[in-house]
Amino acid sequence: VVVNGKWKAIPFGNIGQLMNWRTDWFKQAGYEKFPDTWDELLEAGIKLKKAGHPFGFELGHGFGDNHGWLYPLLWSYGGREVEADGKTIVIDSDETARAIDYCRRLYKETMVEDCLGWTDINNNKAFLSEQISCTNNAESILWSAKKDFPDMAKVIDQSQNPQGPKGRFHMLNPLCHSIFTHTQDQKAAKDFLRWVMKPEQAGAWYDVAVTYYQPFLHRYDDAPMWKVEPRNLPYRDALKTAHLPGWPAPLSRAQSETIAKFVVIDMFAKACAGKSTREVIADAKTQLKQIYRQA
Amino acid sequence: MTAVLAPAEGRRRPAFSFGRWLEREGVFSWLMVGPPIAFMVALVGYPFFYGIWLSLQNRPVAKAGEFIGLDNFINAWHDPVFRLVVINTIVYTLAATLLKMVGGLGLALVMNQNFRFRNLTRALLLLPFIVPTVLSTIAWQWILDPAFSVINWALLHTGLANPGPSWLGNPYLAMFSLIMVNTWRGLPFYAITLLAGLQTISPELYEAATIDGASTWQRFRYVTLPLLKPVIFIVTMFSVIFTFADFQLIYVLTRGGPANATHVFATYAFDIAMGAGQFGQGAAIALSMVPPLALIILAMAIYMRPSKS
User: Fold this and answer.
1) How far is A245 from chain B (nearest CA, A)?
2) CB contact under 8 A, A269 and B259
3) Which of B105, B107, B121 is nearest to B227 (CA)?
4) Which residue in chain B has the smallest CA separation from A288?
5) Do B80 and A286 touch (CB under 8 A)?
6) Distances from the Cα of B209 to the Cα of B215, B216, B220, angstroms
7) How far apart are CA A82 and CA B157, in angstroms?
8) Per-residue b/e over B22-58, b at no fewer than 16 CB within 10 Å?
9) Torsion region of A205: left, alpha or beta (phi above 0 gives left; psi -120 to 50 gives alpha)
């Protein structure tokens, strides 16, 4: 990661967020493959909820599972918070409104009511206790199912996010290594990072985590760890369409403040809780204006 | 008298004695008051005034502050979430305090009766107050959990509801659940304090009232309540302050969700200051608690002032 011509961190891996779904229940509803578009997902969800297998996507103040699908949803309808210049606020658009209208329908017609109050653990719990048939999560659901509920693990699959009118998107959650400026022995720390990022060491590290950290370098695209669990392969391929929150603007302090204040998350959540699309966009715009003016 | 003092007069002024100097009232009293004052200044005064200073700055984390006057307060006023936070805090405080007051008074009256295992019951009553809030709240998290809620399990198996209500997912139910949990936690504080107050009321007053033909309700209305008023005032004041500034319970159960429906001053200030790294804005939000709190306490002090007549 280079900021203003200076190395700030070495990207290590991404913790991807994908669709986790129950193949057996989807099959009963007539779906052999995971729906390819958001509209098809809505259709499938309506059928599955009728069959007693609702969806459950986090809409609360968690850390990852809410951002993991709401930002990609916004982007795939063409909505965004700010322009690439990092200044012009463009949240108030027809594209955003369409994404919100879609989200409200998805929530009302396919999900359990509780999603609004969920944090990152709730969708895992609901999925593993067979209350929901689909959610957006990292690899942890399949992993713990294989450990504790082997029968259920056989009927879980993971797929890329559906696409919207403007394409398919994913969330980038990168983990990086960096060195504190107050580290006394800078050279030793840098040497250590150089050593640890060599394929022998980093590769072994990726291997023990079995693809939970998806490497950014193509060198690892065919690493043995991808053969351990073929159902994890979509995490590798999703990296191509993954962006940081705030995209297409560059990372900034204002950007992280937007995340910490849950501006985008709450915009969707408030709409699901019953507020009008116009109102929630106006609220988000007010908040973004305040955040970006001070940046 | 002079005869007794005479020898002392003849002596020269005694050499300075540190021990005696310490025992002089002016010195000794300051010595006793000093540590608590230093304590208050260091742990209450300094953070408070530093907070005021912060609230007047644009002060993001890891950056120098910049003085901007009252801009943070003006921004907060125009922030849609802040307005919701104000309403939430008022609803939460009023409802929980009222429930605690009525429930606590009832409990105290019951505990003041004679019955078997009275002392054991009194001790058990304190449990919700003794258990660290975060721990008991995690227990409540399971009780209200969508997938494993024992309440919903019971509702399901008695055929009353299928599926059970979403205790923390529905914006109104979430506020309701928080008020209930807060009441559960705060009741013992009310009950025990009011019980102590009840025990100071002389039984003779009740006897006199009974002889005058007062009914149970009249004895409560004209003997118990007036004499308990000062205690009720103190305990309500504490409770309002605690509830208004509540953080742990809400942060563990909902983190201010769903869609900010349960965000209160403390949780929102924390999210802004610690989460978003905007110390100035966070301090401004936290400090906005002070004027309404002061007003509430002032109003209560005037209303509850024991009548001298």
Assistant:
1) 15
2) yes
3) B105
4) B79
5) yes
6) 8, 10, 10
7) 50
8) eeeeeeeeeeeeeeeeeeeeeeeeeeeeebeebbbbb
9) alpha
The string of pLDDT tens digits covering residues A5-58 is: 888 899 999 999 999 999 999 999 999 999 999 999 999 999 999 999 999 999
pTM of the prediction?
0.82
Q: Verify whether the Cβ–Cβ distance A117 to B166 is below 8 Å.
A: yes
C-alpha closest to that of B181 among B136, B149, B150, B145: B136
Instruction: Report yes or no for ipTM above 0.85.
Output: no
CB A247 within 8 A of CB A82: no
The rounded radius of gyration (Å) of the Cα atoms in chain A is: 20
DSSP, collapsed to helix, strand or coil, labels residue B77 as: helix
Residues of chain A short of pLDDT 70, as ranges, are 294-295
Collect all residues with Cβ–Cβ distance below 8 Å to B43 and sequence separation of at least 6. none
Look at strands A10-14 and A174-177 and give their pairing. antiparallel
SS3 for A14? strand
Do the chains contact at B278 and A257, CB–CB below 8 Å? yes
Mutate to test the interface with A, among B254, B268, B270, B274 (most CBs of A within 10 A): B254
- Nearest-by-CA chain B residue for A124: B147
- Helix axis angle, A94-110 to A277-294, nearest 10°: 120
Of B148, B257, B276, the CB nearest to A257: B276
Distance of alpha carbon B23 from alpha carbon B29, whole angstroms: 9
CB contact residues (below 8 A), chain A span 118-177, against chain B: 118-119, 122, 125-126, 129, 131
